[in-house]
Specification:
With 462 residues, the chain is an alpha/beta fold. 42% of the residues lie in helices and 14% in strands. It has 17 helices and 16 strands. The strands form five sheets. A seven-stranded mixed β-sheet has the order 4-12-11-10-9-5-6, sandwiched between helices. The chain is globular, with a radius of gyration of 23 Å. The protein starts with 14 loop residues before the first helix and ends in an 11-residue tail after the last helix. The C terminus is likely disordered.
Length: 462
């Protein structure tokens, strides 16, 4: 950074709030990239003719929001996009001709609208009274839990209905699992490139987070055991079935090795399986290998329909009461109407029909990826909703995202998924579920052309 991006004349009263806002703008625009060391409170107060207290208040606000972090003896540093509530997908809306390959979502079509319209019409005639008026989670959702257990078990993960907590989607399930498995100040470990909201969520819950080395199968067992030997690890958070940004898919042997280490050191496992039964050739779930240690969650949002916000958290027997209590105080209960729709779809076969439709369409879209990317080195998973593209030198992920955007394609940079302190690799995540197949093919062609050539200066899109 050759020039400090904020000048005295840029600020208005109250000065601390104005300074904080300007710093956020500089971080989000890239003028203050991740890793930048900020001036000391005294130096910046002198530069901007402010009091030291004003600068301190601004820095405190940025730290609270997760934009910067302070290190004793070293100073304050920008955490950037991976440390705040930023999202990996394209944030622009309306009026921009963008092929958005940054949002992880299933394929949707007329079939989804038709199924929902039919079910809503049926509900208008025979909606259960409890769906409308009940405040009692267990009695209201009892039938739903029974059918959910049948669905999850049919998908390859045997579960007992008594261990299932219905939630308003996978994010709610993830939050309850973390709150149940660990107390503020305790350590969670996870893939070094993992869930894009986990860093912000653990920070909000007062938990510490450490990224672990990964390979093509996810977390490396030796890295997990080294972390356990270093200090008390409370839980291992995993996306072992292709859901993570790198498309890592853990073999049965890898899963068993991680289970053995978790058992040895008394570590809970939190298994994210948001795609559910999309891939029929599944390795045994951690919830099957180590049911007494594993919090497992899945749902229908990714495998059936984005608007059907419903998830299920499967809890170890010893933690059922604790998990129910935490769900009650943070969510109370899953939305009964969502649960009723999902239950009807499971019972009448609609869910299975939509699942098969999703597999067929994702298989076809992944074939388009293979045809467009050809010799490029990329990772994918069977029936996956995204691919991972390591960028050839001299590309930088941030520059690639900017170039792609200028050519009308949105993708997600690797830094959005970083959970540790080490630098993210130069790579991008490319999602295949949104838009038409024609739009996908066009976007992939642009990406392949960019990746196959050296970067040019990113000029303004005119």
């Amino acid at each position: 950074m050759t020039k400090w991006p904020i000048q005295k004349q840029d600020l208005v009263r109250p000065a601390y709030r104005s300074l904080a806002r300007k710093l956020v703008e500089a971080i989000e625009s890239g003028d203050l990239p991740a890793g930048t060391q900020l001036p000391t409170h005294r130096a910046l107060s002198y530069e901007l003719e402010l009091s030291v207290q004003t600068v301190s208040r601004a820095y405190d606000e940025l730290s609270r929001l997760g934009f910067i972090s302070g290190e004793v003896g070293r100073g304050s540093f920008v955490r950037g996009r991976d440390g705040d509530a930023q999202v990996p997908w394209n944030r622009a809306s309306g009026g921009l001709d963008i092929i958005d390959l940054s949002m992880l979502a299933p394929v949707t079509g007329d079939i989804h609208a038709e199924c929902m319209a039919r079910t809503l019409s049926e509900l208008s005639k025979d909606l259960p009274q409890s769906t409308l008026v009940s405040f009692r989670p267990r009695s209201t959702l009892e039938r739903h839990v029974t059918e959910a257990a049948r669905w999850i078990t049919a998908g390859g993960v045997p579960v007992d209905p008594e261990r299932i907590i219905p939630t308003n989607g996978n994010t709610a399930a993830m939050s309850v699992a973390l709150q149940t498995a660990a107390l503020p100040g305790e350590l969670i470990v996870t893939e070094t490139l993992g869930h894009h909201t986990l860093k912000s969520l653990t920070s909000t819950l007062g938990l510490r987070l450490q990224g672990l080395s990964i390979d093509a199968e996810g977390v490396v067992p030796e890295a997990f055991e080294a972390a356990c030997k270093g200090e008390a690890v409370k839980a291992l958070f995993l996306m072992p079935s292709g859901l993570g940004p790198t498309c890592a898919f853990a073999s049965a042997e890898r899963r068993q090795a991680l289970c053995d280490i978790a058992k040895k050191y008394g570590v809970w496992i939190i298994e994210s399986d948001a795609w559910g039964p999309i891939n029929p050739a599944r390795s045994p779930a951690f919830a099957e290998l180590a049911p007494d240690q594993t919090f497992y969650f899945t749902g229908v949002t990714k495998c059936l329909l984005p608007g059907l916000r419903l998830g299920w958290l499967v809890v170890p027997d010893s933690m059922i009461s604790a998990a129910r209590n935490r769900h009650l105080v943070t969510n109370w209960m899953a939305t009964p109407l969502m649960a009723e729709i999902a239950t009807r779809w499971i019972v009448d076969g609609t869910a299975q029909t939509l699942l098969k439709w999703q597999r067929k369409n994702l298989d076809r879209r992944n074939a388009i990826v293979r045809s467009k990317f050809g010799p490029l080195d990329f990772a994918s998973s069977p029936y996956g909703m995204h691919v991972w593209l390591p960028l050839p030198e001299p590309w930088k992920a941030r520059d690639f995202v900017e170039h792609a955007r200028n050519e009308g394609v949105a993708v997600a940079a690797s830094s959005n998924f970083r959970t540790g302190e080490e630098a993210a690799p130069e790579a991008v995540r490319i999602c295949v579920g949104i838009g038409t197949e024609q739009e996908l093919a066009k976007g992939l062609s642009i990406i392949a052309r960019l990746a196959g050539n050296s970067p040019e200066p990113a000029l303004l899109a005119i």
